[in-house]
Amino acid sequence: MKVVILAGGFGTRISEESRLIPKPLIQIGEYPILWHIMKIYSTYGYNEFIICLGYKGYKIKDYFLNYFLYKSDITVDFCKGNQQTIHHHNAEPWKITLAETGLETMTGGRLNRIRKYIGNNPFMLTYGDGVSDINIDQLVNFHKKHGKIATVTAIQPVGRFGSLTLGEEQRVEAFHEKIRGDEGWINAGFFILQPEVFDYIEGDSTIFEQGPLEDLANAGQLMAYKHTGFWQPMDTLRDKKSLEELWKSKKAPWKIW
Q1: Chain-centre distance of CA 194, in angstroms?
Q2: Cα angle vertex 151, ends 154, 26, to 5°?
Q3: pLDDT tens digits, 53-99
Q4: Using alpha carbons only, what angle is made at residue 82 by residues 78 and 87, rounded to the nearest 5 degrees?
Q5: Phi, psi angles (nearest 5°) of residue 156
Q6: Chain centroid to CA 66
Q7: Of 12, 57, 61, 112, which is the most exposed, with the fewest CB atoms less than 10 Å away?
């Protein structure tokens, strides 16, 4: 299956970084978060990617057009017209389609624009700003078993705040640290979709998480794969710093390679 990654948004909630580069290129350690996401899939043998570009998409193109050289030892001979000799490389075995999907296009519209690269095969879809220790093999098996059009990965995030149990006269009877699950199950991306999903998308203004997913749910064609492990989006600068700390401490749960 091909892996589609949505990487065209403006990233306004992390504008401290995204004003200069697209959000998926914001680095965690020495690599963009987009690279981390691709490594997760690659670990399970999925090496063909379609990246939906929008805001500052040319910078993502520049990154991957030069990536092979970044990962190689090179001799440059100026006496022979700038001849380059690549001795060996450590680049991943990836095939990447970098697709221009428009600056203002919504998520469903971006997906619809790369339909020609999908064909009539099932495919994976995720966002270009979230990492997880999800088991892709188990996700695929779940999707194949239920036979519906779409699978979404569902997680229960840790609550933003701790809570108090209060008794008489406002006495605190118990203090509860932030717990997982107090906000219910949410969409964590890491979808698997049958090509019939395109029938639910109308055009560039379609927000995938609204009309299409709602319609699929109403039709009984949307199933949830429950993931109880690690998942973290990079929505804010605080999120970015948290992911950075995990990576630098060599305790990043999503590093399964």
Answers
A1: 18
A2: 60
A3: 999 999 999 999 999 888 888 899 999 888 888 887 788 999 999 99
A4: 100
A5: -110, 105
A6: 22
A7: 12
Query: Residues 94, 47: contact at Cβ < 8 Å?
Result: yes
What is the separation of C-alpha 45 from the centre of its chain, rounded to a whole number of angstroms? 17
Mean pLDDT of 100-121: 97
Query: Phi and psi for 6 in degrees, rounded to 5?
Result: -80, 115
| pLDDT for the residue numbered 25 | 97
Q: Which residue has the tokens 């964590």?
A: 188
d(CA 6, CA 111) in angstroms, rounded, equals 8
b/e for 83-103, b at 16 or more Cβ within 10 A? eeeeeeeeeeebebebbbbbe
CA of 161: how far to CAs of 22, 33, 158, 182, 243, in Å?
30, 26, 9, 10, 19
Angstrom distance (rounded) from CA 26 to CA 42:
20
- Reported pTM: 0.89
**List of residues 6+ apart from 120 with CB closer than 8 A:** 195
Whole-angstrom Cα distance, residue 232 to residue 209?
18
* CB-facing half-sphere around the CA of 212: CA atoms within 13 A: 27
In one-letter notation, the amino acid at residue 86 is I
Is the pLDDT at 35 greater than 90? The verdict is: yes
**C-beta separation of 13 from 228 below 8 A:** no
How far apart are the C-alpha atoms of 161 and 178, rounded to whole Å? 5
Give the containing element (helix H, strand E) for 40.
helix 33-43
